[in-house]
Design goal:
InterPro entries: Metal_Hydrolase, TatD-like. By secondary structure, this protein is an alpha/beta fold. The protein has 8 helices and 8 strands. Strands 1-2-3-4-5-6-7-8 form an 8-stranded parallel sheet, sandwiched between helices.
Length: 223
Amino acid sequence: MPVPYIDIHTHDAVEQEDVFQLQSLFLQDFEQNPSLNYPVTAGIHPWHAHLFTPDEAREMLERNVGNPTIVGIGETGLDRSIHTSLAVQEEIFELHIDAAQKFGKPLIIHCVRCWQDVLRMKKGTTIPWILHGYTGNLQTTQQLLKKDFFFSIGSHLLDHRAKLRESVEIIPIENLFMETDDSSVDIKDIYREVALLNNMSPEDLKMHIFGNLKKIFGPIVRA
């Protein structure tokens, strides 16, 4: 089987022959259908943090994240653009961090205007943290690289946003993933743009990203 394109984070998986899509589910939805026969990530989105008490969130995580179908935890994280207090979000996020450490599964992070908070909460952790839909500027990217974050680049790159293009140019290929999230963009277009910014062919980029997937998530897809 040829090496596929990897879409590390999508909410609307549509089967494509040469693309592997890692679907992101809300944990409460996964719990209603836990017998899926393909790998997913699942977590309590910060937009939903107010729906659960810490005890309810902890119990739901404990019931589900050990399931081998869940290969990554999230998306989870922090968001300053919503009404839920950051204190409530942090408490739920911390539970995900603990679960990820316990089960040895990577975290898929949603972060909106909370970079310093996320940096603070990462201290002392050992599992990979992947920043999904990353759009940070050069200075933020440099800070995050020092703390070994991984970066998932989405459709915003195709808008030719200067700050994101500058960031992609300095992120090592070993720290990169690509995603479609909830957009209708073709993952191959994002690959082509990232390859262009890194002066490499899309085929070479595919090989590198497939290696990143195996390193972080294990053998969840064959090639």
